[in-house]
Each structure stands twice: as C-alpha cells, then as structure tokens.
Amino acid sequence: MKVLLVLLVLLVLVDGRVFERCQWARTMKSSGMDGYRNVSLANWMCLTYWESRYDTLAVNHNRDKSTDFGIFQINSRWWCNDTRIRTANGCRIMCEQLLSDDVGVAIGCAKRVVRDPQGIAAWVGWRTHCKNQDVSKYLQGCGLDSSLL
Ligand SMILES: *[C@@H]1O[C@H](CO)[C@@H](O)[C@H](O)[C@H]1NC(C)=O
Ligand SMILES: *[C@@H]1O[C@H](CO)[C@@H](O)[C@H](O)[C@H]1NC(C)=O
C-alpha cells in the first residue's frame, strides 16, 4: 500500500506537467472552452498541441526579448508581467502563474487573449497548423464532441 502510494506520488510529480491529450480536452471542456468565442474544442486542442504539446511548463524565448509561457504559450509582451518586458499586462498576472499545473489562470488568460479582435489568429501555432485543417483528430477517441468546427 505504502509502495503503491509512493509510486503514485512519483507518477504525479513526473507526469504532472504534461497533460494526457484526452484529459486536457476534458479539462478545457469543463472550463467552458468549447465554443468560447466560436473556437471549437478541437481547435483549442490543435492550438495547444502545436504551441506546447500540452506541457504546462513550456517556456520559449523570442527574439524581441519577450517570452511565451505555458500550455497556451502566452506572450509576456502583451499579456503578463515577467518583470522584464513592460508593454502591457492584459491578463493582470505574473507570467509564472501561467506555468502552474492548476490551469485555471492559464485558461482564463487564453480566454482574454481570444476576446481581442484578432481572436484565435493571435497564435502562430494555430495559424500555421490548424487554420483550415481538419482538427477533429485532436479529439479522436476522447468521447467528446466538439460543438463547432
Ligand atoms: C459566433 O458565430 C455566430 C454565427 O456565425 C456569430 O453571430 C457571432 O457573432 C459569433 N460570436 C463571436 C464572439 O465571434
Ligand atoms: C511587475 O511585477 C514586478 C514584481 O512584482 C513589479 O515590481 C512591477 O511593478 C510589475 N510591473 C507591471 C508593469 O505590472
């Protein structure tokens, strides 16, 4: 029993940062992401696959000295405070909060980003890999239907 518990804890620690695909889909669905601003769950899945491979700890530095944070790869220049770049803090958060495996802050901030006029096209990963593509495969086998395409 004790051994099992230790193993479980280890598994959570090791795997905690990267979501399993369908688990991430269910998490986004229960957070009201399916159809949010007319963006289907399958498109959110495609976007986060290409941006971070569903990794909450993904961090990538850009040439303009801004940084993209977390599972949605949200940019520090416009959306959060990383104490380095100070153009705007649209989500009113510290960028590190976007790296939590408790993804509430990241999802709230992604909703804020998509409310801007350019919508989901704000994400290069989406424009490059998901726009005008059949994105249904990202939900395949999850037992979830995406409300829209
Ligand atoms: C979503 O799509 C509907 C139907 O095309 C449209 O009327 C509505 O304005 C859209 N909403 C947003 C937030 O884009
Ligand atoms: C960013 O966070 C730092 C550290 O908490 C704070 O000193 C600074 O005022 C913040 N900057 C902005 C633009 O919010």
From TrEMBL:
GO terms for biological process: defense response to bacterium; killing of cells of another organism. Coiled coil: none annotated. One of its GO terms (molecular function) is lysozyme activity. Keywords: Antimicrobial, Bacteriolytic enzyme, Disulfide bond, Signal. The keyword Kinase does not apply. Residues 1-16 form the signal peptide. Its EC number is 3.2.1.17. It comes from the Eukaryota. It is an enzyme of class 3 (hydrolase). Pfam families: Lys (PF00062). The keyword NAD does not apply. Belongs to the glycosyl hydrolase 22 family. PANTHER family: LYSOZYME C (PTHR11407:SF63). This is lysozyme. It comes from Poecilia reticulata.
